[in-house]
């Protein structure tokens, strides 16, 4: 297996495959992870569930500079020292919600996640990183793929059974396949910056928050702390790189609401794109992550959706290569992921409709009744237009593969989460392959025997208490990605047709 691209999605795919004993070569041009572009800050609940399954959720939390206890708020204000306009709490899955999920979301700069995933990949004997190298060409035949890799010592060819193109927006793999993005580009430029301002946190009038949206005509922006040590990120809306770099001090002063002692560490211009690739698979080659889909960053979904691609493809490819999955399992990758990606692109596009720029109005900083009325109207508008962006757990968790060719009887939903009587998560009781969960007293012998005959890794667990009440049926067959493949009152006496379907035979 060759993974093109050792960004977050390629590394996640290598973790999913490598843990299942599949040998992977990860080809990645960047020797080291750069801290200059901390793009993703929102590692969402679903990604944290995968990290927990890989045994590394706590490792991310230990090294993330902001703990979930720091804040679960997003504040809209005229500036960091100006008036508060509106506030959302319990945002982005940062607060627990009973049984709904086992891991809250985590705010962490993208480089922190990437460094952790590099470390984890380094701990897997099955994964070989090829740093300082890039994929430049590939050609496939019925038996495999020949990949040309340009490395520090010149070009070489590598033979792989499959290739995953996780090489980002300018994907070479996508180009080699002749696939292309379909969709739209936003015209408005944006300038991301990382800056040091050690005294800033103490000056913020609105208390801790993970995001501050500054609604003022001088600096319509979005910013937040990267750590508790004076490092901040900002996105200045509608600002070109050149103008923004020349004008950085003025933009930062306006966002803060007064002169601030700040040093710009890096800049990162970007424009939003709403695009899906026309095909994410040609033969033995697949596209995942930004190589396959791009969405505006509002709501924090791009990387998280890419991790979902990596998980879906990872367990399926491993099942096929280990001999217990059939070819239709691979066909289901696009069938399952495309509707998810499409929904995310549409939601993120809707989030982009109202930014700080669009919320500016007269008198927001005025004293007296005029100012109060302007701020009340702004609050109303912000709550109406931005709520869905910060409270999007349905989008993140209610991913449903009902239309998938490899689920049976209308199943396909993410297994409803529950806490077990011993305090563990129900998800911790699942095996690495299929898991048959039952309420007490349901017979599993025929099913177990058929799985053993086929070499399908199966765990069986009888659950009781609240977890049993939350099961969608007396017997539930769960896939390695925690989605329900089938559910019913009792496993069929002849499980062969059901297994053929859910394993893509
Ligand atoms: C301002 C901003 C904020 C964001 N915030 C969030 C957020 O909060 N939450 C979220 O989920 N997402 C967020 N995103 C999106 C997120 O950054 C991307 O979705 C994510 O980086 C995609 O990961 P990837 O691995 O698919 O691609 P990339 O991160 O682009 O990685 C691709 C990798 O492929 C390598 N590569 C390139 N060419 C080749 C080649 N020829 N051969 C081999 N390797 C190659 C590159 O070096 C790179 O390491 C944000 C984006 C922006 C712009």
Would you mind describing this structure in some detail?
With 505 residues, the protein is of the alpha+beta class. It has three domains: 2-38 and 109-185 and 273-351, 3-Layer(bba) Sandwich (FAD/NAD(P)-binding domain), CATH 3.50.50; 66-104 and 187-271 and 361-390, D-Amino Acid Oxidase, Chain A, domain 2, CATH 3.30.9.10; 426-502, 3-Layer(aba) Sandwich (Glutaredoxin). It has 16 helices and 25 strands. The longest helix has 26 residues, at 327-352. It is globular, with a radius of gyration of 24 Å. The structure holds flavin-adenine dinucleotide (FAD).
CATH level-1 class of the largest domain: Alpha Beta
Mean pLDDT: 97
CATH H-tier superfamily of the largest domain: FAD/NAD(P)-binding domain
Largest sheet: 7 strands, mixed
Query: What percent of the residues sit in helical stretches (DSSP H or I)?
Result: 25-40%
Strands of the widest sheet, in order across it, are 5-4-14-15-16-13-17
How many separate domains make up the residues?
3
Overall CATH architecture of the largest domain: 3-Layer(bba) Sandwich
Structural class: alpha+beta
Residue share in β-strands: 15-25%
CATH topology of the largest domain: FAD/NAD(P)-binding domain
Bound molecules: flavin-adenine dinucleotide
First-residue to last-residue Cα separation: 22 Å
């Amino acid at each position: 297996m060759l993974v093109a691209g050792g960004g977050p999605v390629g590394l996640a795919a290598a973790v999913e495959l490598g843990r299942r004993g599949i040998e992977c070569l990860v080809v990645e041009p960047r020797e080291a992870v750069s801290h200059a572009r901390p793009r993703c800050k929102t590692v969402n609940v679903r990604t944290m569930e995968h990290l927990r399954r890989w045994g590394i959720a706590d490792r991310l939390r230990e090294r993330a500079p902001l703990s979930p206890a720091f804040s679960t708020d997003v504040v809209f204000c005229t500036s960091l020292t100006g008036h508060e306009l509106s506030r959302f709490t319990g945002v982005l899955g940062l607060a627990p919600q009973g049984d709904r999920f086992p891991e809250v979301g985590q705010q962490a700069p993208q480089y922190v996640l990437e460094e952790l995933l590099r470390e984890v990949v380094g701990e897997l004997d099955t994964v070989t990183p090829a740093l300082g190298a890039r994929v430049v060409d590939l050609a496939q035949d019925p038996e495999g793929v020949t990949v040309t890799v340009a490395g520090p010592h010149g070009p070489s060819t590598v033979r792989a059974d499959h290739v995953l193109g996780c090489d980002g927006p300018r994907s070479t793999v996508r180009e080699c396949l002749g696939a292309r993005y379909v969709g739209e580009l936003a015209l408005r430029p944006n300038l991301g910056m990382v800056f040091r301002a050690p005294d800033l946190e103490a000056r913020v009038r609105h208390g801790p928050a993970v995001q501050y949206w500054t609604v003022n005509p001088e600096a319509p922006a979005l910013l937040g702390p990267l750590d508790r040590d004076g490092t901040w990120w900002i996105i200045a809306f509608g600002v070109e790189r050149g103008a923004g770099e020349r004008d950085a001090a003025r933009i930062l002063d306006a966002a803060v609401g007064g002169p601030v002692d700040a040093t710009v560490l890096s800049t990162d211009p970007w424009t939003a794109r709403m695009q899906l690739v026309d095909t994410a698979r040609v033969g033995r080659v697949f596209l995942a992550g930004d190589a396959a889909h791009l969405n505006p960053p509002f709501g924090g979904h791009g990387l998280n959706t890419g991790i979902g691609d990596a998980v879906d493809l990872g367990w399926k490819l491993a099942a096929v290569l280990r001999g217990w999955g059939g070819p239709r399992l691979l066909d289901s990758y696009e069938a399952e992921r495309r509707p998810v990606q499409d929904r995310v692109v549409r939601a993120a596009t809707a989030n982009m409709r109202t930014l700080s720029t669009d919320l500016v109005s007269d008198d927001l900083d005025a004293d007296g009744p005029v100012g109060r009325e302007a701020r009340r109207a702004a609050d109303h508008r912000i709550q109406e237009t931005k709520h869905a962006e910060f409270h999007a757990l349905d989008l993140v968790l209610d991913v449903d593969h009902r239309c998938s060719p490899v689920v049976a009887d209308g199943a396909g939903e993410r297994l409803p989460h529950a806490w077990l009587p011993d305090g563990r998560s129900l998800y911790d009781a699942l095996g690495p392959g299929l898991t048959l969960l039952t309420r007490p007293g349901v017979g599993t012998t025929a099913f177990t025997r058929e799985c053993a005959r086929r070499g399908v890794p199966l765990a069986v667990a009888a659950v009781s208490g609240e977890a049993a009440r939350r099961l969608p049926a007396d017997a539930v067959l769960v896939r390695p990605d925690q989605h329900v493949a089938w559910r019913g009152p009792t496993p069929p006496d002849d499980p062969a047709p059901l297994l053929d379907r859910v394993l893509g035979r």
